[in-house]
Task: structure prediction
Amino acid sequence: MIRVVLPAHLRALARVKGEVTVEVEGTASVLSVLDALEAKYPMLEGTIRDHATRVRRPFLRFFACEEDLSHEPVDAPLPEAVVNGKEPLLVIGAIAGG
Amino acid sequence: MSTVRVSVGTRKGAFVLTSDGKREKWDVSGPHFAGWEMYHLKGSPADPNRLYASQTSGWFGQIIQRSDDGGKTWFQPGTPPGETTTPEGTPKGESNKFTYDTSAETGKPLTTHQWYDGTQHPWEFKRVWHLEPSLSDPDTVYAGVEDAALFRTTNGGRTWEELSGLRGHGTGPNWQPGAGGMCLHTILLDPKVKGRMFIAISAAGAFRSDDAGKTWKPINRGLKSQYIPSPESEVGHCVHRIAQHKSRPDTLFMQKHWDVMRTDNAGESWQEVSGNLPTDFGFVIDVHAHEPETIYVVPIKSDSEHYPLDGKLRVYRSKTGGNEWEELTRGLPQSNCFVNVLRDAMAVDSLDKCGIYFGTTGGQVYASADAGDSWAPIVRDLPAVLSVEVQTLP
Result:
């Protein structure tokens, strides 16, 4: 079970409060977690990664265990603490004006 | 008694304003989708309780929302309310998907348009500016997007396909973004001629299709734009808005970057009707619901000073289809007013007397229940208003 923390606007879209959890078969990576997240919450399709290119939106970043995973290969294994549920994968929106 | 519903899109959410036919007391609901840019909301003429909304964000991209109960509750089409997956499994989450058609069968792989510096730039989807529901089918909606293209859904917003004949018309490399981006902001569906529709793009110009969006022709003859290399060119004009009266669909009125124009032959040729306007720059233009020669604009000082002349917010009305304009000021601020009225932020109801509505970047929504003779704010302190649409309900 992978824990995921979403920005407030995406929690509102998904109609959830607090963290969400997803199950991933095989290697847990940012890619497999996002695939599982979008399968469970299809209204989030296109909001974290572009619908057409599947690339992370530029104002969003991925963090876990105090590490920035945003620029790692999307299929790189997640830290063990995320895989075993001790730490969440954080999807963070840029602090930008407006 | 009739009811009036005003749907307001703002920089930080949507609001629904309702009143009875007197239009004196208003209920305000919202913000819906708080914190999101709500570019446009519009109801279906075929089912007034069916509303569509464009919800967008620089962080999270484009979302399409739909209401089937007049704006009380909303959901993303394809994902029923309260459910996290579609009953049939697929398509899921496709209501947010706007991808340009580059297929060999139907798409024309036109991949670049002109950038601000004159170089060519690839088409990149940014947001939906305008949603235009079909006149007869509540499940069919047209979407005007940035970078400029036209999309359509025929399943209530669950999936969208590009009508690529417009983007592939051939003049695309000469289209360029205005200051607000290269947006398709106006869609007019002809109520008399089947399959005829008009669109406008900033900065490309106006286009017409006579075959339900399959093929298009530019309709910009008569426009003169001193700010482009060839002032009378086929495309490249910064059209801000076009408007039409349903009884005379061949007559269109246009607020251009500068100049107010009209055509009486479905865009084959345009004439300037700015007449005695104090400035002919502006964004909005609309037509009285019952008088097809009565039109409204809000003159703005200039393309670099986006506020009313002299700090006086004035609507101008022409009862002669242009050229002769009268200023309307009663109830509007006549000092220290420096707001703008954006292109999708004026609408009319169909009551008698006709109601006129517009929203400002200062967050006011003004209404006139007497065709513009007098005005009063419905609300004063919303976020900056991007769009105003009105439904007259039985």
Notes: The helical segments of chain A are 8-14, 30-40, 80-83. Residues 10 and 16 of chain A are 9 Å apart (CA to CA).
